[in-house]
Amino acid sequence: MDTMVPGSAAADPAAAVPPRLAFRVPPTFFELPVKEAVDQLDEALIELAQDVYPQGNAELWFQYVAAQLPVVLEMREAGVGYAGFCLLDIEGRRSTATVTATVLESVPGGGKATASSVAAELAGSGDGTRVETFWLAAGEAVARFTAEITQLPGEITDSGRPEEVEIGKISVFLPLRRTAEMVLFELSTPCMEDWDLYSELFFNIVNTLEVNEVNEVNEVSEVSEENEENEENNKYDANPAADANPAIEVPLQAKPVRDVFG
Predict the structure, then answer these.
(1) What are phi and psi of 15, to 5 degrees?
(2) Do 217 and 16 contact (CB within 8 A), yes or no?
(3) Angle at 111 between CA 106 and CA 116, to 5 degrees
(4) DSSP state string for 97-119
(5) Do 88 and 30 contact (CB within 8 A), yes or no?
(6) In contact, 85 and 154? CB cutoff 8 Å
(7) Which residue in 160, 25, 125 sits closest to 81, CA to CA?
(8) Torsion angle defined by CA atoms of residues 63, 66, 72 and 77, in that order, rounded to the nearest 10 degrees
(9) Which pLDDT score, from 0 to 100, does residue 109 have?
(10) DSSP 3-state helix, strand, coil percentages of the chain (rounded to 5)?
(11) What is the pLDDT of residues 23-72, one digit of tens each?
């Protein structure tokens, strides 16, 4: 089931401020601790290893931590706000895919990019990748489809030895024109036989993205503060009419979402 991350509106009723950017992920996804403090990464990764391999032993968990730690550190350096992966059993074989989400704080050149300008830039890269523009619930976006050869560590291969595999990737760019930012979602999977499954799953995730513009968040915050003041005043108001007309409550975000950008 979907979970609410601490710090979002429903997790903190007193705040009553919706997250600026939020989306849903399937309950089968494990989350990498990309937002954990550096000095707590080892412990967080050990807990993750135990969740992923509950029947494993200390040696296996240590190997998993050793393999994932540089990956998580690299994601932190890149500013990744969310990283999750699934491990599926499909007709007796293991299958996996990773999804990440990042907000790029500034658009190259300092301008406000559009889906068309991003698509033109990506198409002009000359690397033979496929680029498409399409509409999400949150606005017009760009998808880039690529494939590359990479080497997987032995800790995560069936043979136990490093193997070269083809990695399929989808990158979705959603320009936020008001703030000159870019939301970047990426899917990667070495299981190309399950490409149709993962690409459909990925676009379903991306299409749940909800964007609350900064000014909208501020407006909700101001209303929330006003409500708190009204409630405090009502405590000492002996006028029965005050009870008949209580302060308007700001509705909390009712649907469960994974808030990764806060």
Answers:
(1) -75, -45
(2) no
(3) 100
(4) EEEEEEEESS-GGGS---HHHHH
(5) no
(6) no
(7) 25
(8) -170
(9) 58
(10) 35, 30, 35
(11) 999 888 999 999 999 999 999 999 999 999 999 899 999 999 998 999 99
Burial call 46-85: b when 16+ CB within 10 Å, e when fewer: eebbeeeeeeeeeeebebbbebbeeebeebbeeebbbbbb
Element at 257 (helix H, strand E):
none
Distance CA 110, CA 58 (A): 49
SS3 214: helix
- Amino acid residing at 110: G
Q: H helices of 151-235, where?
A: 195-206, 214-234
User: pTM of the full predicted structure?
Assistant: 0.72
Interval 170-222: pLDDT, tens: 999 999 877 778 899 999 998 999 999 999 999 999 999 988 765 544 443 34
Facing residues of 134 across strands? 141
- Contact between residue 185 and residue 99 where contact means Cβ atoms under 8 Å apart: yes
> Which of helix, strand or coil describes residue 226?
helix
Q: What is the largest CA-CA distance in the chain?
A: 77
Q: How many CB atoms lie within 10 A of CB 209?
A: 21
3-state SS, residue 164: strand
3-state SS assignment for residue 252: coil
* CA-wise closest residue to 262 among 77, 141, 103: 103
Q: Is 123 exposed, middle or buried (0-12, 13-18, 19+ CB in 10 A)?
A: middle
Q: What is the C-alpha separation between 242 and 226, in angstroms, rounded? A: 16
**Residue 143 structure tokens:** 């998808």
Cα(7)–Cα(2) distance, integer angstroms = 15
